[in-house]
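Example record for the data management plan.
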Amino acid sequence: MLVGMTDAHAEAATAAEAADGAGAGTRSGSGSGSGSGSGSAERRRRAPAGAAVLREDVTEAIRAAVLEELAAVGYARTSIEGVARRAGVGKTAVYRRWRGKLHLVLDIVSALAVQGLPAPDTGSLETDLRLLYEFTSRALRHPVASQIIPDLQAEAARNPEIDEALRKAVRSGQESVALRIVAAAVERGELRRGLDEDLALDLITGPLYWRTVILRQPRLPKSHLPTLTRATTAALKSL
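Corresponding structural encoding:
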């Protein structure tokens, strides 16, 4: 029985548990009494007995619950029990997918990195940077992100696996988009070939993260992003 849930939620969770992770062999066996035709044999070949079939809607509910739990109580107090309760499932559904809290959180961080930011392609370095800053600023102002990112950064100082996951998330997300903007500007002749890419990344990504994540000032003056865009464009052209 799920702690803190109503009977209705518990019944729904029980139904989800029964469907989620059901062995494929169990389903194929249910039709064995009707004969041994080629259709049944084919199904058995495609789905070995005991193979787990995990419901995608349950997986997505758990992923959403992890973000909510992290934003509400932080990494240290996040628990599999709390995540399961928010998702409306039993702990077994979580453990079918992840070995524990650390692996669950690392998977979520990696998944967010893969989603990434859209890469602007306007034909101009300055307008590409302006769109990138607008996308990033909106993402960092989101209540969930503004709570989770600082907490995971603090945890990364104590946990090498989380530290590596966050570094990978930044490289796969923000940095890959910034490098594409730089490469496109080089091809157009707006930036010189052979410029220091690491320094270019620092110039593009550093100021906004410093203000919104480190100083935790997500509400920026209206003129900040246009001014930052012009300053970054000029700095990149000087490299």
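Summary line stored alongside the record: DSSP finds twelve helices and two strands in the chain.
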